[in-house]
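Weekly modeling sync, notes
Attendees: AB, CL, MP (scribe)

Item 1: holo prediction request
CL wants a bound-state model with serine before deciding which constructs to order. AB pointed out that an apo prediction alone won't tell us much about the pocket. Agreed to run with the ligand included and paste results into these notes for async review.

Input as submitted:
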Amino acid sequence: MTQTTQRILVTGACGQIGSELIPVLRQRYGDTNVVATDIRPPEADCLKDQGPFELLNVCDRARMDDIIARYAIDTVYHMAAILSATGEENPTLAWDVNILGLVNVLEIARQRKLVRVFCPSSIAVFGPDTPHDCAPQTTILTPTTMYGVTKVTGELLGEYYVHRFGLDIRGVRYPGIISSETLPGGGTTDYAVDIFYHALKYKSYSCFVRSDTVLPMMYMPDCVKATMDLMDADFNSLRSHCNFNLAGMSFSVEELANEIQKHIPDFVCDYAPDFRQAIADSWPQTIDDSPARTQWGWRPRHDLKSMTRDMLEKLRPRLT
Ligand code: SER
């Protein structure tokens, strides 16, 4: 295990993953060594009160470079992105934020010789031509969304910077992430979070994909663990860098609703599929993550049962 990281910058700090990754990074590396950045000011007090926060639009390379220089950053977690559903509503915005933002991070990493960069990818790299069950890591990537197009491009760019410039760039293909602290924004898998809020507040939920829709999902503690574990891995043990498949759990919406009903018996779920159904249908149902398991020891800890119990325990006091 390498432990060279000293000074970290996180983009997209106020987002679903950033807001839970930062407290863990600050706990481990020290509050002042983790600079949170986002295009909007933080709502969560902990982000601004416990360590430095800077406003940053990732498309603004000069400002990104200034922050990285000013704080003597050596490691970046580049979490800022436009997700699949928002990306379909505004494809050029998705391209600009996801591609220009990434190129800015990679170029600054090259010029300033940063030690390590984390650039997440997504199950959105897959498309209708990918095997739907046990999608392999190396497979046909023909995404139908602009988000997916930017994530395939991002994986290739990251790998290019590893081989062409000798940088240490790493990334995983996150599945849908389920969490209780910050709502996800603009993704197709958001229903798997929304359903908990509606179940507790209204005892009913109208889901925007069909009941039999199965997608790969992961609970936030596993998401943070995977991120930290990959960043800790010995670079020499990695045979690829920016495209690790990552599986947690896969379930249909109906199975999720049934699991919630075990805790909230009068909860009812109905279904009103919209444009996000086609996006969901283009992604695999299950993922083969054996390269992550063998190369850096990845193992998820949560399943549908434990995730549902924990989500309801965390959200109940806030919502009821
Ligand atoms: N959660 C993302 C989305 O639905 C997938 O990576 O867009």
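Recorded for review: The chain has two domains: 8-176+218-245, 180-217+250-286+303-319.
Action items: CL to compare against the apo run; MP to circulate these notes.
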